[in-house]
Amino acid sequence: MTTARPRTRIQQKNTSAIMEAALDVFSQYGFRGATLDQIAQAAGLSKPNLLYYFPSKEAIHVELLSGLMDTWLDPLRDLDADGDPVTELLAYVTRKLEMSRDLPRESRLFANDILQGAPTIHDGLSQELKPLVDEKAKVIQGWIEAGKIAPVDPYHLMFSIWSLTQHYADFDVQVRTVLGPDVTDPHKGAQEYLTQLFTKLLKP
Predict the structure, then answer these.
(1) 126 confidence band (pLDDT: 50, 70, 90)
(2) Which of 21, 67, 185, 201 is most buried, with most CB under 10 Å away?
(3) Alpha-carbon separation of residue 87 from 90, 179, 203 (angstroms)
């Protein structure tokens, strides 16, 4: 059995450059519209050099989305069944909105794959996302049955949180156009609105 050699510093640097460039290109053009030439140019590498690290566009895309799945699920994993229900759910809303602000390219990358039928992350959705959502839906249902929050459908509650937070990343241009140039950070207003909205919705 052979052990893979650790990457050299230059290999690590080039791999990081490729990942960063691919994130830009894929989030802007989608998988189908992106090309290896675009990624190589954005990474400051030749195409043959890029292919030394990744054999195909598909391999780069899979690498990006595989790493993204854990990032996307971490806030939901942090939902504490023993915590105060409203506090826990509002913290989840806040984390998702912060991700929308801080990781807009990642959000669009994820959304693009979903819109194409999830060809890259379908296994992650079924094997990682669904079991976690089922687990947290039971937690929310338990809070409802204990009278700690208002009766809501746990799954549609999570869908609402996802759509109302990720909108600010996936439709950033639309949001900023509608709000106008005086609003430099739409997330502050979004945080206040969503806190008010979900507090009223969840209040028993």
Answers:
(1) very high
(2) 21
(3) 5, 29, 11
Query: Using CA atoms, how far apart are residues 126 and 37, in angstroms rounded to an integer?
Result: 33
Q: Does residue 106 lie within any of the structural domains? A: yes
**Domain that includes residue 41, residue range:** 7-55
List, for residues 160-195, the tens digit of each pLDDT value: 999 999 999 999 999 999 999 999 999 999 999 999
Cα distances from 82 to residues 86, 109, 155, in angstroms, run 12, 33, 20
> How many domains does the chain divide into?
2
- Residue 176, Cβ density class (10 Å: 0-12 exposed, 13-18 middle, ≥19 buried): middle
Are residues 37 and 25 in contact, defined by beta-carbon separation less than 8 angstroms?
no
The radius of gyration computed from the CA coordinates of the chain, to the nearest angstrom, equals: 20
Does residue 111 sit in the same domain as residue 47?
Answer: no
- CA-to-CA distance for 73 and 92, rounded, in angstroms? 11
CB atoms closer than 10 angstroms to residue 25? 26
